[in-house]
Structures are given as structure tokens and as C-alpha cells.
Write a structure and sequence with these properties.
Elements: E1 24-25, E2 28-29, E3 32-33, E4 41-45, E5 50-55, H1 60-78, H2 83-99, H3 101-112, H4 116-137, E6 155-159, H5 165-178, E7 182-186, H6 193-204, E8 212-214, H7 219-226, E9 233-237, H8 240-250, E10 256-260, E11 266-269, H9 275-287, E12 299-303, H10 307-319, H11 339-354, E13 358-361, E14 376-379, H12 386-389, E15 396-402, H13 405-413, E16 420-424, H14 428-435, E17 442-445, E18 464-465, H15 470-475
Parallel strand pairs: 1-5, 6-7, 6-9, 7-8, 9-10, 11-12, 11-16, 12-15, 14-15, 16-17
Antiparallel strand pairs: 2-3, 4-5, 10-18, 13-14
Helix pairs in contact: 2-4, 3-4, 4-5, 9-10
The chain binds 7-thionicotinamide-adenine-dinucleotide phosphate.
7-thionicotinamide-adenine-dinucleotide phosphate binds near residues 160 and 262.
Length: about 475
């Protein structure tokens, strides 16, 4: 059967009209959509390279206005409001995301390039789940073990990346609102659209003006926002490089900071693992969302005795992945988000070949236009190679082998990052032994990429600090013992 086509899939494209894409989008400040004073940007459909919409961006004085609006809303309305009332608004946001789920899913796939089955089944439902979860906390903060009457911090300045645009917004905005803070959020330059539809949802929910403000723009807008003296808390998700820059900028100030940064996770397969199940977890770990996942299992560590079996089965499985139109319901791998990201992936893959690793790329047909990269697996990888050390943030897996448990732990921890890890073995005792030694914020056992709003998520080392989700995520938006 290998190599033969078992059956063909007929195209099953979702209708792009469902997204109701407008030609022009505007920033959302103090409850109103108005053009900003920045240079307008054009957001592309990465599957075609064509312009999807024009977005008005903000100037630094617009950021001032957004922060003032958030401050006013914080002092007058949002923080004095009883938790029971705030909960209703947060719950309403969750319900409206559900109501507009199909529109949001199609829009996310158009703007980001991710397959519709992922935006439809993961991004949007999980975003709604975060609002539902936090709506439940809004009137119970006194029972969260964070003090009898925990107080919000004030205005949160939040900056998010392009890989899960609406979901990262939900991770940031839901806990901030539930705990009584107000928000100014900057979406990524290449994926601003679902954040601006979320702004419409805030209007629909009749959220008081100024509680949520969305300020589209580039890195300069992010920088203005995070260093703004009117911001009490900065929450950033993005690259380690920019995270370090922000930490330096805020050093010595009283602004609270949480950073969710990059990763280079080890996915560790032992010889007693259920190999077929592990193959599915490996594929999900690195090819979900084109590998644009901070916690992607991008380093596969396989026990030497089973590496041939794992590699053979893995290649056979990866060959079946369909790459193409993100709006096609059969597509497994969509478009790379931007030409810049595609160039970065190509450069790192070339370095892997140059440094002597063995490259295998799926022979699947790749669309000729748009930004696409076929799933790729490197074997014969050494820990010193760039593909084993640097975050590729694309559909590229590096495979290494180990012999003993200690060696697996050492290899897994040999990285400046520490966001996530995976372990595949039948032995529960081995899972427990390993999880206490792996320096990673999340360790998945016999599964990968599982998310739940109740489970805290965050990193060690250069993957950042602070947690999002669960009780720890609430604490990041509340005054603690060390605050006045
Ligand atoms: P970045 O270049 O760091 O961008 C992230 C966000 O920060 C974008 O909105 C960006 O604006 C903005 N930004 C750029 N320079 C800034 C500055 N000097 N000050 C403040 N904001 C600034 O990362 P990216 O390429 O968009 O995202 C990919 C990275 O994010 C990966 O390394 C990935 O691992 C990480 N990530 C981590 C997580 C978690 S939870 N740990 C989740 C997702 C992604 P522009 O869009 O205009 O550049």
C-alpha cells in the first residue's frame, strides 16, 4: 500500500464570505472605532499572498488615549463593579464568541493561514472556553486562595503574537477582565482582524467604553504600550528576544510583568511506548498549526532501539498529511503566516542540511502561490546543530536518539528554553520520575498539545515567567503581598 493513493479527497472549501471581511478596519478606543494616526497596514491572506484588508493603525497619542480610557473605565466602572456583574459581561463575551464562531474561524484562517479544521475545532472554541472559565471566577476571587478580597492591578497593556490570534487574546483579556482590570491590547501586525471583530463583540455585549481597547500597529506600537507610564501590568506573548527587551525596559519600574516566550520542546519516546499512538502525538506535536506553536514538540528524542521503527512509521504517516488551502476542511497543513516566517524556516532548514543532518521532506504536492512549506523531518541531528537549538516555528522536526533515562533528561534539558515536554512510555513510574526532572512548565504524558483554561501554562528559563490559566493565571492580575 505504501506510496499508493488509497482514495482522493474531493475539495471541501468553507465559504470565505462567512468571514464578512471588510475592506477597512479601525482601532477600537473608548468604545468607538476610529481611524488612528499611524500608517495604515495591509494584512495579507498568506495562502494567496493577496491583500485581505487595510487596517488603520495607532500613533503614540492614540496609545495615550487608549490608556487614559482604560484608566477612566477602571476607576469609574470596572473595578468598583461587583464581581457578580462583571461575571455577566465576561459570560456574554463567551456566548457571543460562540454565536459568531463560524465567522471568526473563517476570518482567522484567512488572516493567519491555519487550516479551518483547527480554527473551527480548537482556536475559537478554546477562546470561548477561556471566557466561560473566567466568568465563573469573577465573583469567587475571595475563594481562590489569593487573599480574602484580592484587588485588581489597574490597566493591563497586552501584546500578542500571530500564531493563535484570537486564542492569545482570550488568554490575555479573559483573566484581566474577570479580576477587575481594564485592557489595552495590541494584536500582531500580520493578524489583526479577529481582535477587531472581538472589539465589535465588546460593543455587542455592551461592555462599558474603555474596558477593552484594541490598538493595531507594529512593534513600535507594542513598545509604546509596554513602556507607557499609565500601564500597571504588562502581559506579553512573543519571541524571547522581544521579551528580554521588555524586561530590560521595565526593570526598576513598578509595572508588573508576565512573559510567555519561545520554546524548543523535547518529545521523548521510550521503547515500550505504544508506537502508533506516539506517532499521532509526534505529528500533532510538530505539525499542528504548521508548527507555529511555542510549545511545539520540535525535538523528538527516541530511544535508540526503536528509532528505525519510529522514523519509518512517522514518514509514512506524514506523507498522508494534506497541505493546501486553509479553508478546505480536508487540509491538515495550511499556509505559513508570512513571507518573513517562510524565509526564516528555509534558512534554518538549509543550515540543518549544511551542518550534516539528514533531511526528509514529504513528497506531498505544495501549492505554487502563497507561503507554504512541506512537512520536514531531520534525522542524524546533533545537539550542537542550530536545528536542535533554535526555535524554527515551522513544520520541521529534528530527531535525536538516546539510550538511558539520564541521557534523555540531559538532552531534553539542554536548551535555554523550558516551556513544554512530552513523554511516551507505558510505565507510570517512569513518567513520574521524568516529570520531576524535566525543566518545562508543562509536561504531557502519552499525549501532546492538550489545553484547558483551568490548567496553568507558562515557562521556565528563557521561555518566560508567570502563568496563564487556572488560579495562578488569576494571581498574575491581582495585587499580592508585595504590593502596597
Ligand atoms: P515577536 O516578534 O516577539 O512579536 C510578538 C508581538 O510583539 C507582536 O505583536 C509584535 O508586533 C510585538 N512587538 C514586536 N517588537 C516589540 C517591542 N519592541 N515591544 C513590544 N512589542 C513588540 O514574536 P512573533 O514572531 O510575533 O511570535 C512568535 C514568537 O512568539 C515565537 O518565538 C513563539 O515561541 C512565541 N510565542 C510564545 C507563546 C507562549 S504562550 N509562550 C505563544 C505564542 C507564541 P508585530 O506583530 O508588529 O511585530
Amino acid at each position: 500500500m505504501k506510496g499508493e493513493t488509497v482514495f482522493d479527497y474531493a475539495p471541501a472549501p468553507e465559504n470565505p464570505d462567512i468571514a464578512r471581511v471588510k475592506q477597512h478596519y479601525q482601532p477600537f478606543i473608548d468604545g468607538e472605532f476610529t481611524d488612528g494616526g499611524g500608517e495604515p497596514l495591509k494584512t495579507l491572506n498568506p495562502a494567496t499572498g493577496e491583500v485581505l484588508a487595510e487596517v488603520s493603525t495607532v500613533s503614540s497619542s492614540d496609545v495615550d488615549n487608549a490608556v487614559s480610557a482604560a484608566r477612566e473605565a477602571f476607576e469609574r466602572v470596572w473595578s468598583p463593579m461587583p464581581g457578580t456583574e462583571r461575571a455577566k459581561y465576561v459570560f456574554r463575551l463567551a456566548r457571543l464568541i460562540q454565536e459568531r464562531a463560524r465567522e471568526l474561524a473563517v476570518l482567522e484562517s484567512l488572516d493567519n493561514g491555519k487550516p479551518i479544521k483547527e480554527s473551527r475545532d480548537t482556536d475559537i472554541p478554546t477562546a470561548a472556553a477561556h471566557f466561560f472559565y473566567h466568568a465563573g471566577w469573577a465573583d469567587k476571587l475571595g475563594y481562590a486562595g489569593l487573599g480574602r478580597d484580592p484587588k485588581p492591578l489597574g490597566v493591563a497593556g497586552q501584546v500578542i503574537p500571530w500564531n493563535f490570534p484570537l486564542l492569545m487574546l482570550a488568554w490575555k483579556i479573559a483573566p484581566a477582565l474577570a479580576t477587575g482590570n481594564t485592557v489595552v491590547l495590541k494584536p500582531a501586525e500580520t493578524t489583526p482582524l479577529t481582535a477587531l471583530v472581538f472589539a465589535e463583540i465588546c460593543q455587542q455585549a455592551e461592555l462599558p467604553p474603555g474596558v477593552v481597547n484594541i490598538v493595531p500597529g507594529g512593534g513600535d506600537v507594542g513598545q509604546t504600550l509596554v513602556s507607557h507610564p499609565g500601564v500597571d501590568k504588562v502581559a506579553f506573548t512573543g519571541s524571547t528576544e522581544v521579551g528580554k527587551q521588555i524586561q530590560r525596559q521595565l526593570a526598576g519600574s513598578r509595572t508588573r510583568l508576565t512573559l510567555e516566550l519561545g520554546g524548543k520542546a523535547a518529545n521523548i519516546v521510550f521503547d515500550d511506548a505504544a508506537i502508533d499512538q506516539a506517532i499521532e502525538g509526534i505529528v500533532n506535536g510538530i505539525f499542528f498549526n504548521q508548527g507555529h506553536v511555542c510549545c511545539a514538540g520540535s525535538r523528538l528524542l527516541v530511544q535508540e532501539s526503536v528509532v528505525d521503527e519510529v522514523l519509518t512509521n512517522l514518514r509514512a504517516r506524514v506523507e498522508t498529511l494534506r497541505i493546501g488551502d486553509p479553508l478546505d476542511k480536508n487540509t491538515d497543513i495550511g499556509a505559513i503566516n508570512s513571507a518573513e516566517q517562510l524565509a526564516k524556516i528555509r534558512e534554518l532548514v538549509a543550515s540543518g542540511e549544511g551542518e550534516g543532518a539528514s533531511r526528509w521532506t514529504s513528497p506531498c504536492p505544495v501549492p505554487e502561490r502563497g507561503f507554504f512549506f512541506a512537512p520536514t523531518v531531520f534525522s542524524d541531528v546533533e545537539s550542537s546543530m542550530r536545528i536542535a537549538r533554535e526555535e524554527i516555528f515551522g513544520p520541521v522536526l529534528s530527531v535525536q536518539t538516546f539510550r538511558t533515562l539520564d541521557e534523555a533528561v540531559t538532552m531534553a534539558n539542554t536548551t535555554p528554553y523550558g516551556l513544554s515536554a512530552g513523554v511516551w512510555t507505558e510505565k507510570g513510574s517512569r513518567i513520574l520520575w521524568l516529570t520531576s526532572r524535566l525543566r518545562a512548565g508543562v509536561v504531557w504524558a502519552n499525549t501532546f498539545n492538550r489545553f484547558d483554561p483551568a490548567a496553568p501554562f507558562g515557562g521556565y528559563k528563557e521561555s518566560g515567567f508567570g502563568r496563564e490559566g487556572g488560579r495562578s493565571g488569576l494571581a498574575a492580575y491581582l495585587q499580592g503581598d508585595d504590593d502596597d
